[in-house]
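Per your request, structure below.
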């Protein structure tokens, strides 16, 4: 077996490991790279050259800044005010949750953290207002997925770099096009879910004065919002109380919002390194607001960082061994690069349902190179592949699925689990071909 074929086989085994209890791709990726490098006689110093230092700094910087925002309670305050303004206009709640989910991830929060913030609020509101849990869950998830491709979010900042690393030309409009396509797709999915559930929305929109509104303490599941809409599960109470006591609330909120604005302006307008800028702003905020360093460091998703670093190191090794040329040849439809792109999108969707979306995108992007050389638009191809990876992320078997189900009223969990599973499997079949048909031709 040649080294390139061995690296492909090991990669397939890594993704199949998602079916094995207690298997961690984050822990397995770097050891797998070490093993394949040893067999292929690749020097360790050369292997470390594939380690993505820039990606690690990017994720640490952005998530550190948002960790300060969480620990000071600013995110609680923003969410609470947004929900409170809806009042009795229940039919607007799905759109509000969609918008909030988009905003949170667009500012750089990773999907798992965004779901941890949003799930208790979403499922608590569904229970209190009599809205279908599936509807509320879907609009929240699609909103979160929409914001992932913001130019200052981890996914959105990563995609152009992956293209550049694979020597694929990156047009100037790539990032805006990816974000607009993501938001448009998510918004259509949100509106479709609302249309299907229109009768339930109409019933819930009846004047609350004529209905018996259950006591929030009884209706909301553990960790759901209180009567004011504030989620108690966003951060441990002791952490929030201590962080807020360290500095006046007005100062915490003003300083944190200013830092988030500076991150957007610095990254978009001045093209500053988002990782270093985010980490610098987080450090200044931590000192000014007297937040404990541990409250920030402990919130950084080290597991995600290890996952991305390990997978990208392994992918760099695979490229060095010529593995992607072999895979590209296997997915080629002679004379039809667009059908080849469809095959890549289909494989991406199936794999992403069981594995990390960012890892799957990083694996799929190098397969674009021969397709772009054959005439496929790099912008259309990255949009189709990226959306194929995230549109299938409604998976109740994942960690994020566990967060959602744990935030749901006990008597509704089994039904919601079945509904999410059916929706997720249908999205695997329908999603990738659909986004390929709409965006692959751009």
């Amino acid at each position: 077996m040649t080294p390139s074929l061995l690296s492909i086989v090991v990669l397939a085994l890594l993704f199949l490991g998602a079916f094995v209890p207690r298997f961690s791709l984050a822990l397995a990726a770097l050891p797998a790279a070490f093993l394949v490098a040893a067999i292929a006689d690749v020097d360790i110093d050369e292997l470390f050259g594939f380690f993505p230092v820039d990606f690690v700094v990017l994720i640490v910087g952005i998530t550190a800044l948002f960790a300060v925002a969480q620990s000071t309670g600013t995110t609680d305050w923003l969410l609470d005010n947004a929900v409170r303004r809806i009042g009795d206009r229940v039919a607007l709640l799905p759109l509000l949750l969609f918008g909030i989910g988009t905003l949170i991830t667009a500012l750089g929060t990773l999907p798992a953290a965004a779901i941890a913030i949003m799930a208790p609020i979403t499922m608590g509101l569904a229970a209190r207002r009599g809205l279908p849990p599936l509807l509320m869950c879907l609009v929240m998830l699609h909103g979160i997925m929409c914001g992932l491709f913001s130019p200052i979010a981890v996914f959105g900042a990563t995609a152009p770099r992956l293209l550049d690393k694979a020597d694929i030309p990156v047009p100037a409009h790539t990032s805006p096009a990816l974000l607009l396509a993501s938001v448009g797709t998510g918004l259509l999915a949100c509106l479709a879910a609302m249309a299907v559930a229109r009768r339930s929305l109409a019933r819930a929109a009846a004047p609350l004065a004529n209905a018996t509104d259950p006591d929030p303490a009884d209706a909301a599941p553990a960790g759901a919002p209180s009567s004011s809409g504030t989620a108690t599960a966003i951060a441990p109470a002791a952490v929030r109380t201590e962080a807020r006591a360290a500095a006046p609330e007005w100062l915490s909120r003003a300083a944190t919002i200013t830092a988030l604005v500076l991150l957007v302006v610095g990254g978009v307008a001045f093209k500053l390194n988002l990782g270093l800028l985010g980490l610098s702003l987080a450090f200044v905020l931590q000192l000014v607001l007297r937040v404990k360093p541990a409250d920030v460091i402990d919130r950084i998703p080290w597991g995600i960082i290890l996952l991305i670093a390990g997978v990208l190191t392994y992918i760099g090794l695979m490229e060095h061994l010529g593995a992607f040329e072999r895979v590209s040849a296997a997915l080629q439809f002679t004379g039809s690069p667009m059908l080849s792109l469809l095959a890549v999108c289909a494989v991406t969707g199936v794999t992403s349902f069981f594995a990390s979306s960012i890892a799957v995108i990083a694996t799929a992007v190098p397969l674009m190179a021969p397709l772009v050389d054959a005439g496929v638009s790099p912008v259309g191809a990255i949009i189709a592949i990226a959306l194929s990876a995230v549109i299938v992320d409604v998976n109740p078997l994942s960690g994020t699925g566990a967060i959602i189900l744990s935030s749901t009223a006990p008597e509704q969990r089994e039904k919601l689990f079945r509904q999410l599973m059916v929706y997720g499997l249908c999205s695997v079949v329908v999603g990738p071909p659909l986004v390929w048909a709409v965006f692959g031709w751009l």
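Confidence is low (pLDDT under 50) at residues 207-245.

Regards,
D.
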